[in-house]
Each structure stands twice: as C-alpha cells, then as structure tokens.
C-alpha cells in the first residue's frame, strides 16, 4: 500500500510539474512556436531520455511542426555520436522535415564539439530553433 501511495504521489507531482511547463506550447492558434522573431539567439532544446525512448523520432516530428506550423528555421544537432547509425537516422528525419542538420566531422567528433559547431552555425545563419539529439546515456 505504501508503494502504491508513493506511485500516486510521484504521478501527481509529475502531472503538476508538466501541466505548468507546457502552458508555453499553447499560443492560442494551435501552433507550436518557441523562438521570438526578434531574438538574436535561437531557442535551444535538449531532448533527453533513456535509450530507445524515441528522442530522435520526437525531434524529427517537432522539427516538422516548428517549420510548418511555426514558420521557423530549425537546425538539428546530431550530438548522439555513440550509437551506430544515430547521425544517419537524424539526417533522414531532417530530410523528411526539410530542415538542416549539423553532425560530426573530422574536426568535431565529440558531442560537445558538435553542439558548439551547431550553435555557431545557428547564430551565424539566424536559425530560430536548435533541436539537440542526445545519446540517452544519462549520468547521475
């Protein structure tokens, strides 16, 4: 019974926390829009979660909505440099969503280097939003 009570309390805390935080998604027009048109810097969203939770797929779908519904320029940052095929998978989603992707190169191989490169590109080319794909290898 105590364990069930703990589960209910955690669920209620989760619902309260995210009920408040998702208010920014409702712009009144049914669209999702993060960056303000007057912002000098892009909005940066880190997508984090455990392995296999659908982070890359979510990024692809979110990028499509931001581009089509929010009329935003979106850059995906392929910071999952650990999983085989992760960069290629994100590139496929970028192609489907018709947005750009910044990935590892000979000079930028680590997740941090890829992120720095993506942020430099986003600022230089005035992107509205950067979606960061992480590896899912979360530390405590």
What is the gist of this entry?
By secondary structure, this protein is of the alpha/beta class. Helices cover 43% and strands 13% of the residues. The protein has a four-stranded parallel β-sheet, with helices on both faces.
Give your account of this protein's structure.
With 140 residues, this protein is α/β, with parallel strands linked by helices. It is built from 4 helices and 4 strands. The chain has helices at 2-21, 55-68, 86-97, 111-124; strands at residues 43-47, 74-78, 100-102, 129-133. The model is unreliable at 17-25 (pLDDT under 50).
Flag low-confidence runs.
Answer: 17-25
Number of strands: 4
The succession of helices and strands, N to C, reads HEHEHEHE
Helical/strand content category? alpha/beta
Output the radius of gyration: 17 Å
Total of helices: 4
Q: What is the overall shape? A: globular
Distance between the termini: 29 Å
In spatial order, strands of the major sheet run 1-4-2-3
Q: Specify the biggest β-sheet.
A: 4 strands, parallel
Oligomer: single chain
Strand content: 5-15%
Average pLDDT, all residues: 81
| Helix proportion | 40-55%
């Amino acid at each position: 019974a105590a364990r069930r009570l703990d589960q209910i309390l955690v669920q209620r805390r989760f619902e309260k926390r995210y009920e408040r935080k998702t208010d920014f998604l409702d712009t009144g027009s049914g669209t999702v829009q993060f960056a303000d048109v007057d912002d000098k810097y892009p909005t940066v969203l880190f997508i984090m979660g455990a392995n296999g939770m659908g982070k890359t797929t979510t990024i692809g779908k979110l990028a499509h909505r931001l581009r089509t519904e929010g009329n935003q320029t979106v850059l995906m940052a392929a910071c999952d440099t650990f999983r085989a095929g992760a960069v290629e998978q994100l590139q496929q989603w970028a192609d489907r969503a018709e947005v750009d992707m910044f990935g590892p190169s000979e000079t930028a191989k680590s997740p941090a280097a890829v992120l720095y490169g993506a942020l430099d590109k986003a600022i230089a080319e005035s992107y509205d939003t950067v979606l960061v794909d992480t590896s899912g290898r979360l530390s405590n």
